[in-house]
Amino acid sequence: YQKIGVIGAMKEEIELFVQHMQQVRDSEKAKIHFREGSFHGKTIVLCKSGVGKVNAAVTTQVLIDTYGVDAIIFTGVAGAVDPELNVGDIVVGSESMQHDMDVTALGFPRGTIPYEETSLFASDNKLRELAVHAGQELFDGRVKVGRVLSGDQFIASRETVSRLYTELQGACTEMEGAAVAQVCSMNGIPHVVIRSMSDKADGSAHVNFAEFTVQASENSYAIVEHMLKHL
Ligand code: ADE
């Protein structure tokens, strides 16, 4: 890859990249701030998309059109959906889907985008393997490859999170990944979503999110840093 887009939704999720990039050049498009520069000898374009699928989709298309990235890595935090996952653990997205896409009234299964070929957007094999390798080296295998469920909702209820697990087989839930994945798929650009768990998307999610977002962001950064070093 010649130029890699690195997206985080929030300040905490990109902070360590900001601190470690060199020869940076800043610019703005669609009110989104982009920082192009060098990171472990690779050219990256770092940006904070803002929260939610619309922000993530616009950011991804701008990264592709205006900055010419040829791969995209999303880094950040998520709520654990798979009950085996604990705070701090890492999910490497195998594919992602929009859990809040709901056209069930017309007979489409939950999460299905009507009239599209697919509603599940797969990550790139090579990027995924790099991430798994990073997880083995840095986190002693405490890494799960699984499905990322995205929606414009902060999930904070035991009933909802268990439904996301049983009905949609999610590993984790967040608010951007599937939008990035779909836009990448529409443009033929490889991507992967890396997420470390800040909470368990249950009744304590808001408290845990506040407490563990910085630590989980550091874990996700560590994986992506290792990936970029080994590219
Ligand atoms: N990001 C981190 N935790 C989350 C949750 N519980 N729901 C949605 N997005 C999240």
From TrEMBL:
<dbReference type="InterPro" id="IPR010049">
    <property type="entry name" value="MTA_SAH_Nsdase"/>
</dbReference>
<dbReference type="InterPro" id="IPR035994">
    <property type="entry name" value="Nucleoside_phosphorylase_sf"/>
</dbReference>
<protein>
    <recommendedName>
        <fullName>adenosylhomocysteine nucleosidase</fullName>
        <ecNumber>3.2.2.9</ecNumber>
    </recommendedName>
</protein>
<keyword id="KW-0378">Hydrolase</keyword>
<keyword id="KW-0326">Glycosidase</keyword>
<comment type="pathway">
    <text>Amino-acid biosynthesis; L-methionine biosynthesis via salvage pathway; S-methyl-5-thio-alpha-D-ribose 1-phosphate from S-methyl-5'-thioadenosine (hydrolase route): step 1/2.</text>
</comment>
<dbReference type="Pfam" id="PF01048">
    <property type="entry name" value="PNP_UDP_1"/>
</dbReference>
<keyword id="KW-0028">Amino-acid biosynthesis</keyword>
<dbReference type="GO" id="GO:0016798">
    <property type="term" value="F:hydrolase activity, acting on glycosyl bonds"/>
</dbReference>
<dbReference type="InterPro" id="IPR000845">
    <property type="entry name" value="Nucleoside_phosphorylase_d"/>
</dbReference>
<feature type="domain" description="Nucleoside phosphorylase">
    <location>
        <begin position="3"/>
        <end position="229"/>
    </location>
</feature>
<keyword id="KW-0486">Methionine biosynthesis</keyword>
